[in-house]
Specification:
The protein is α/β, with parallel strands linked by helices. It has 2 domains: about 325 residues, TIM Barrel (Alpha-Beta Barrel), CATH 3.20.20; about 90 residues, Immunoglobulin-like (Sandwich), CATH 2.60.40.1180. Helices cover about 25% and strands about 25% of the residues. It has 12 helices and 21 strands. Helix 3 runs parallel beside helix 4, helix 6 runs parallel beside helix 7 and helix 9 packs parallel to helix 12. The protein is globular.
Length: about 450
């Protein structure tokens, strides 16, 4: 058995646009816009592929897109996110609101997803809107990550008793058949509950989906905050892991790494952290800095990440303005930075830090390329760090400092690869990215 390359595994298991010329040239491009095929898992189980190419998952949570947005608003939203580089959109089929919300579950036309709230009687008018949403996303090369069983604390299974062991399989099979030929769908099993809650319903639903679409689409499971779908690690229907940390955003890295190190190997998505400007978090306010931390922790921990903004997923009156919130723009910078390198070859490696790795809210993280020519390190706090350059196999290492807020790049120098050097976040900045490359 191969050992997990993450050197902090034991600790994890115990704790369970000032753009550069490159960025200017590529700003506004949609890296996956030409992609049209189904999402699949790479041969090594670590990442996603589409049309035979590595697929960079940068998600956004728009849970109410099908229910609270008009079709025109939904298209405007999808187009805007596509221009920003978001490749995956999270959406619910039945939506009954969230903390502080009171909704009827119908869409803007007053249509409910099911007649008499019976999943065995789907409302064709409601699902025609989902058909159109799927097609609109496909034109942008976007994947829809769809939660058919609703969230918000498992209301539809726990409180409203809409989905049961008796109807879940038939409903899942109907969905699977209806969308079998749609390439840009990934299914999200689950109820925003602890994964062992209503396991029988989840398993019936998964069996129905697989019977309906023949396994054409990937599937994961959406648990409640502070849990991972890895509870189902050995289930064949679980194609990748889905993590929610909710308010405890500083646990993102340890959760991602723990799932990264599980067997059998499966991709990991930190799918629901703390939403930018979220109003319900005890750990708030959720600032752009926290948004950046969660994302860099996810990607450099060997996983992927989904962003969210409070005004967008709720469809607050300011949702349009919030599409350009600082966090969303800064994650676009992150995506351009990582996709300018062979990101799929990165593996998490904390041995890069000789001193100063820190922990929790100021956790510094690093990932190295298996080719030995690249290390990307994220400095989440302002304390200095000491970095060992041995992970780069070339004799000399060129280091670039990247401002994660603006994308501005500054040459930090060229150093021998057998040296240890001190670095720190520049004065006046909250965090920084170091890119170490073979000279």
């Amino acid at each position: 058995m191969k050992k997990c390359p993450v050197l902090i595994l034991e600790t994890v298991l115990l704790s369970l646009f000032l753009l550069t010329p490159y960025h200017r040239a590529n700003a506004g491009q949609k890296p996956e816009a030409a992609a049209s095929g189904r999402l699949a898992v790479s041969e090594n189980g670590r990442y996603f592929v589409r049309d035979g190419k590595p697929f960079f998952w940068l998600g956004d949570s728009a849970w109410s897109l099908l229910s609270l947005y008009t079709p025109q608003e939904a298209k405007e939203y999808l187009d805007h996110r596509s221009r920003q580089g978001f490749t995956v959109i999270h959406v619910m089929i039945p939506f009954n609101g969230g903390p502080g919300m009171d909704t009827s579950g119908s869409n803007r036309e007053g249509e409910l997803p099911f007649h008499d709230w019976n999943p065995l009687q789907p409302n064709e008018a409601y699902f025609r809107n989902l058909d159109a949403l799927v097609d609109a996303a496909q034109k942008n090369g976007q994947i829809l990550y769809i939660l058919p069983l609703g969230g918000s604390g498992g209301a539809f299974v726990d409180k409203l008793h809409v989905f049961t062991k008796q109807n879940a399989r038939t409903y899942g099979e109907w969905l699977g058949r209806r969308y079998k030929e749609k390439a840009n769908i990934v299914w999200m099993n689950g109820f925003d509950q602890p994964p062992w809650s209503y396991r029988d319903v989840a398993e019936e639903f998964a069996a129905g989906l697989r019977a309906g679409d023949g396994g054409a689409h990937l599937m994961s499971y959406a648990p409640i905050g502070a849990f991972s779908s890895s509870y189902f690690q050995n289930e064949p229907w679980l194609n990748f892991n889905h993590i929610q940390v909710w308010s405890e955003y500083w646990r993102a890295y340890s959760f991602v790494v723990a799932s990264y190190c599980r067997l059998p190997v499966k991709p990991v998505v930190m799918a629901e952290g703390a939403y930018e400007a979220g109003t319900e978090y005890p750990s708030g306010p959720i600032t752009p800095l926290i948004v950046r931390k969660q994302a860099y922790w996810s990607y450099l921990g060997g996983g992927f990440h989904t962003y969210g903004h409070n005004d967008v997923w709720r469809r607050n009156p300011s949702w349009k303005e919030s599409l350009d919130a600082p966090g969303a723009q800064q994650l676009g910078i992150l995506a351009r930075l990582l996709t300018s390198h062979a990101w799929w070859k990165l593996v998490p490696d904390q041995s890069v830090f000789v001193r100063g790795a820190s922990s929790d809210e100021t956790q510094n993280v690093a990932a190295r390329s298996t080719d030995g020519d690249l290390v990307i390190a994220y400095l989440a706090g302002t304390a200095p760090v000491w970095i060992d350059l041995h992970a780069i196999t070339a004799a000399a290492v060129r280091i670039t400092l990247v401002n994660p807020v603006t994308g501005e790049e500054t040459a930090a120098g060229v150093f021998p690869h057998d040296s240890v050097n001190q670095f720190a976040v520049p004065a006046g900045s909250e965090d920084a990215v170091l890119v170490l490359q073979a000279q």
